[in-house]
Amino acid sequence: MMVEAGYETVAREIIKCTRCPLHESAIRRVIGKGSCHPKVFFIGEAPGDNENKTGIPFSGRAGKQLDKMIEYMGLSKEDWMVTNTVKCHPPGNRKPKINEIECCKPFLLSQIILLNPRIIILLGNTAERSFCPGRKLEWGVPVEHEGRTILKLYHPAALIYNRSKIETQNAFIDRNRGLWS
Ligand code: SF4
After folding, report:
1. 23 lines ligand 1 (CB under 6 A)
2. What is the distance between the alpha carbons of residues 44 and 132, in angstroms, rounded to a whole number?
3. Comparing 2-16, 142-156, 157-171, which segment has the lowest mean pLDDT?
4. Measured in angstroms, how far is the CA atom of residue 158 from the centroid of ligand 1?
5. Which of 48, 52, 97, 158 is spaced 20 to 30 Å from 21 by Cα?
6. What's the whole-number mean pLDDT along residues 90-107?
7. Exposed/middle/buried for 55, CB within 10 Å: 0-12, 13-18, 19+?
8. pTM above 0.90, yes or no
9. Residue from 2, 12, 14 whose mutation best tests the ligand 1 pocket (most atoms within 8 A of CB)
10. Mean pLDDT (whole number) for 12-22
11. Is 86 in the pocket of ligand 1 (CB under 6 A)?
């Protein structure tokens, strides 16, 4: 029903949602950032402190790292969109719990259906648990999942100050450029 009503309705539903306890720690709802017609749809983990204040996903240090990654991938701003598994900030920057991820999943799935990206990049294990529960993907190895190509890469926060992980991530990207080029 949300999908039929369109993206703006999904956003309005997110803003007023109280389905899980995370709404109690939310200052702003963090819905998404990027193109309305993305080739690549990134899924992160959860809004951090900075995102909670700005309402913009990946607007802190991890966001700067994501920008570098997107630049290395050669994507233009029309090519991508990013969101998280949950739209509200977990208190104390903890990981979102499974029940919170499940409560928020209809919003994530509605975004994917409405924006219809060809490729979904899961940024870390929490995104994998949300989008492909029960599947264990290899880092940097694409698979088909429900009609889309899925690729699991490191979360940008894991790359901050970790030169060797950046090199490994860049090798994953180099190996998979054909997916989005
Ligand atoms: S995290 Fe998602 S399900 Fe939970 S209150 Fe926020 S919008 Fe609703």
Report:
1. yes
2. 14
3. 2-16
4. 25
5. 158
6. 96
7. middle
8. yes
9. 14
10. 97
11. yes
Sketch out the chain's domains with CATH numbers.
Answer: 2-179 (3.40.470.10)
Residues 6+ away with beta carbon under 8 Å from 151: 119, 120, 121, 122, 140, 141, 142, 172, 176, 179
Structure tokens at 124: 């870390």
pLDDT > 80? residue 2: no
105 lines ligand 1 (CB under 6 A): no
CA of 63 to the centre of ligand 1 (A): 21
The one-letter amino acid code at 99 reads N
